[in-house]
Every structure is written in structure tokens, then in C-alpha cells.
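Assemble and predict.
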Amino acid sequence: MAEKQSLRVVAPLEQLSAFFLLLQQGVWLQAQIGCSVASLLTEQFNIEEKYIVERITTMFLDFKPIDDLETTYVKDGSTLALSSAMPGLVGTTMRRGSHLAAMRGEISYQNQQQVVSGAGRIKIKLFNMVMTELGARFLAHGVCLTNGELDTLLSEMDDSFWQSIEFASVDDQQVDYTSLVNRVRTGITDEEILLKVEFTS
Amino acid sequence: MDKILRINMSAAGGPTQSTEKAGEFAALGGRATTSTIVGNEVPPDCHPLSADNKLVIAPGMLSGTAAAISGRISVGCKSPLTGGIKESNAGGQAAQVLARLGYAAVIIEGIPEGDDLYKIHINKDRVEISVDNSNKLLDNYPLIEKLQKEYGDKVAYMSIGSAGERLMASASIACTDPELRPTRHCGRGGVGAVMGSKKIKVIILDDAGCKNRPPQDAERFKTANRAFVEGIRKHPVSGEGLPAYGTNVLTNVLNEAGGYPTNNFKTGQFEGGTKISGESLAELEISRGGKATHGCHRGCVIQCSGIYNDKDGKYLTKQPEYETVWSHGGHCGISDLDTIATLDYWDDNVGVDTIEMGVAIGVAMDGGLLEFGDGVGAINLLRDEVAKGTPLGRILGGGAGMTGKAFGVTRVPVVKNQALPAYDPRTVQGIGVTYATSTQGADHTAGYAVATNILKVGGDVDPLKPEGQIELSRNLQIATTAIDSTGLCLFIAFPILDQPETFQSMLDLLGGFYGIEMTGDDVAALGQKVLTLERKFNKDAGFGPEDDRLPSFFQTEKLPPHNLTFGVTDEELDQLYNWD
């Protein structure tokens, strides 16, 4: 199987917001699957346990709220959504270990089944404060986008983004906006590219 | 707040007024006051738009004081939408001003003869009730703009738009915000139609020359207020999430949970959800020179509102709330924020409840009036039909239930004829219990005070036992009813849930102000007392167990992606009010 093309972008941190819609919709990341959610976040994405406890207080795995990160396992193709504490009765109900957890009834993540370990990928969605605080970290890790998704992302970025970026390359060859768009639009729509964004402060 | 203003619109020779001592209401407020007066004085079997109904307006127990975030005002009456008792509350400036004027309540009775339209001007020296037919059929924005030339910008206004004058059952009462925009609404239950039936267009509240209400124990009150503010600011929900993104921060989370009712409750996830999320809304507001952080009244330390500008950077509306973004967004299949903001503007201008109107439009879409996702069509319905009072507009303005009947729709999401808010009860079963059993009709805020564990209302519940859902809902409704009486914004529930010292500071605020000792038990007792009274009113108005139910499609239609139905039985629902 051929290696994915790699798009590397270096941009100032204030341009992180250009990726907010993408981060909410979810990005695919290559990861070792079959591990616990806690292990995935701390060991593979280097997120401090303290941050997870204090800030990522609401999590969904495959649309189900999670309570115990140690006994919830990610499988290939899983979707993991990360959020800070939410307002409202339902927001509180969705919190990890909420005293109102009974109100969510059957949708809570339960009944763990044995999952296969190995290389795979998961979709990460980032919401609210967690998006602003962890977005750069996940984008630096590298996210997989199809040409179609990248085309949409490029179309939604305004001129100021491209005027502010410090460097962009595809497979180590520097590109400008026009040539990148041409490359994306003439490529196969479903073909994937690995996007890595490094933010400078 | 030592007096009550009573206005009789039926009096021979024109409206009369009298002032009486507040008595037991001097130390009450908000929902406790409105529901007690309605329960004691309004015949439960009266027609809501008849002279027998009364409109009761009451600031909260801490309104008009220096207490932070104490600006909720309650309006009570028999609801023309539900036919039961109604308390509808809002932010804005009205509560603070009315409380500083010294009124525990304003009670408006009767209906005047003839077609004249009245305005009521209240200041510290007098109450003036006068005819002003030049305001007829003006909507809220032009009305307030006009009135400012006469009464200035140092007052608070409570007004109805054309929907209230036309007695639509979804009509709201608008309260102006600090910038004098009519953006905060007592929205639910058609309270604006009751004001319209009494031929009152606007109440102008002027507290010039008045001071904050003095606490009994100034030092204790001041210390408690400081701790209360600190607790609110340091909590991640009230101090970070709500100020940054507003209540619409919930869209992504509800969508992810599969509990975001989409296309009139057909699915639990909306593909366009991220485009209308709080995160996307805040980005857009900031990029257009608006604000993602803004208070609805002075003294608010959460600031969950904002300013939404149009593409040219001109003010369009305040930041739409989560429920509004949902009702006009996902519920109608609309994923364009400008469309939703325009609908929010028209809701506020015409004076209708954004939940009821959005749900009604979605039900009409289900009935074939428009395609789901037709944003232009939705704006046309509100601007060209509801705002002009056409027959179609009157059907929509009559609420989701009426709209469902008009278009032969079987999936009509209402309880006691009031539209369900933005949380599907098949995914979050516990909130379905509250929707079904609330005295107010389907209402997400009826069981909102999430700090039941601290309030200890009804004891602790094991969160791992599903059968605890009835008990949880009961406890939530009792706690919420009490908070609704304080005038404090319900969003204080989050810091008092997680921070015991913030809960204590809230009790100390009340205790320091009234010179009494308050405990969690006192708060719970107040909530239960008010609920008992409301329940009795509804029983006497003809409500029975069969009205404490969700529409049957929630039991029969599975909601993707979890494919669940509502599983709480009728017998279990009937256990909610286990004390009466």
C-alpha cells in the first residue's frame, strides 16, 4: 500500500480557528487501537492525566457517554468526542460520573467486548474549550483528510490564513496556495492526504 | 418589596389602581409569588383570555439588591397555550427595576371595554395608566425605539409585539436588556396573549431616585455575594464555557449523544450540527464585530449572551440561545446561522416564544407546507404570515399543537399542548419524565436545578439505577421551583452543584438579605409547596394523569442512532407527585 502524501503547514497560533469547524466535525488519526481511552489520550497523544480529569469532563465513544476511561476500549474506526463540562440538565447528565447519569438510561457506554489491538485509526472530535486547548496538538500529530475534505477546508479558509502561513509543503516540496488547490482538485476525491499543522506562537 | 400594585382594567370609567401591603409576599419572589397569587385568585376553569384571568408580574427574592445575577422576572397567569397554570421567566432589566421600585408584584386584572390600547408607566412617585393607540400593532423593536423618545433610555420596558395583541397562544412578553433591546422574553405559555387580552401594550418601569434594596445584615450579605461571584467565575461552565460560547455550546454535545431532535424528532443527529454550534456561532459573531460574551442584565457575571451582526457588521439580533438555534435549526433541517439569527430577530420583534414558533414551523414542514431545510420559506412564514396576522400566521402563532391539527400531522411534540424543547426524551429518558409531569407543560427548565445532591431534596439517588429517574425528576423539579423564586439565574446551578462553598454562599445571600437562617431543607420545602399549589390549580382546571404523558410516538418510534423509545411507564410517571 502506497504511503499517503503528506501536507505540512506552519502557521501562527492565531490561525488555529481556521480549523475549528474541521475539528468539530472530526478528524481521522492513525493510532494504536485496542487500548483504553485513558491510555490512548495519555500515552499516544501525551495529554496529562490532570488535564483529562479537570478539563475533559465529557466524552463520547461512538455516540455513547463514557464514565470509566480505564475500562472503555477504542477499536478501529471508533469515534471519540472530547468536551469540557456542559451547562444544562442534559449537559450535566452527560458528564463523566455524573450523579444524574441515571437520566441517560441505556445510552451510557457499557458491556465492553474484547477488542483487537494493533495499528488502526480513530476519529477525534473536539468541542468548546477542549478544541481551543488541544486542537493544535492533534493537528500537529497529523490528521487524515480526503482530497474532497481538504478542498472544502481550503475553500472555507479566508485570504488572511494563506497570507499568514509561514511555510507549506507537500512531501517536502514547498507549495503555494494556488498549486496546492490545483493539486487537490485534480487528485482523486477519496484519496487521502496526511495533514500536519505546526503552530508557532 | 413591601407593596403590591393591583390594576383593574375592567373598572367602570377606565382602569383603576390600588396599592396594598405585600404581606406574606414581602419575603417571597418570582415563581413562588406568581403561582401563589394565581392559585389563590384565578378561577382554574376560567378562559385564559377572559377578564377572570390575571397577569402577575414578580421580581425574584434577591432582585433589586446588589446580589449578582439576580435579574430574573417571573410572569404568571392561566396559560392560553396549556390551559394550566403558567410561570414564565426572563432576564433583562425589568426585575431589578421593579424590585427597586419596591413592588413584590404587579397584578393586572380584568379587561377594559372598547378597543383602546393602554400603557402603564411606573416610577417612584406614581403609576400612570393611559391610552396610547399610536402603539397599535407595532412590533417590539420599533415600539421600544418610539417609546425611548418619550421615556428615555434609563428605564426598563416590558412589552408585547403584534402577536400579543392578536392573542396568539405563543405570544411572549419582551423585557429590554441593558442596551434597551427587546431581546429577553417571558416566552413560554402565551403570557403575551394574556397581556394583550388586557389591552396593555407596554409597561414602562422607571427607578430614577430609587436605590438598591438594603440587606438586613449588610456585612454577611456583602461577604456572601463576594464568595458567590468568585464561585461562579471559577467554575468551568459558568466561568468559561457559557461566557465563551453561550448556551448553544450544547449543540455539539447533544448531537454527539444522539439526542438532538432533527427534522421534527425523526432522528437524533443533525448533519449540519457543527455549522450552527456554539463554537461556530461565537467565531462568526467575533469575526463580524459582534460579541460572543454579553450580559442580559446589569449585574450578570456569567454573560452567556452575545451580539449577532449581519454580513455587513450591523446588529441583527442578540446571540440566539441553544433552544432557538435548535428549534429553527436542526428541528427544521436548517444549518445556516444567518437564517436562524433572522428568525430569532423576527421572534423577538413579533413577540413569540422561539421554541413554540420553531417547533410549529417544523411540524408544518412535516405536514408538507415547506421542505425541511427551507430557510427562506421559514423566514417568509414568520415575517409575512405570523407578523402580518394572516390566517396561516395565526395557526402557526397558535403553537405546535394547533399547527399539527391544521396540517394533519401525527408526530406533534407537545405536552399539555406546549412544544418540547431541544432534548429528545428517548435518548435522555429522565428529561422525558420532567416534560411529561411538569405543571408547566413540556419545559426543559422545569427540572433544571442539577444540584439536587447538595439540596438533598428527597434524599440521594443511586445514579446507576434506572428506576431512579422518577425520583431524580421529582427532586429536580422541586429544586428548580425554589430557584425560580429567588430571581437568580438557573445557571448558578452548575457552580452550586460542584462547589459546596458556592451553595453555602447562595444560602448566605438569602439569609444575609432577609436576616434569617436558610438551609437546603428550607429551599426544598419552598419548591414543594409551590409545586403542590400549581398541581392543585391544574387539577381544578381539569388536568388528570392522562395529561402527564408524552405523545405516543415517543413510545412507538425508535430514534436513531440509539434506536430507543421512551421506556418510562405510565404507572411510574404517576408516582412523581408522591406527596399529594
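The domain at 244-412 of chain B is CATH 1.10.569.10 (Aldehyde Ferredoxin Oxidoreductase Protein, subunit A; domain 2).
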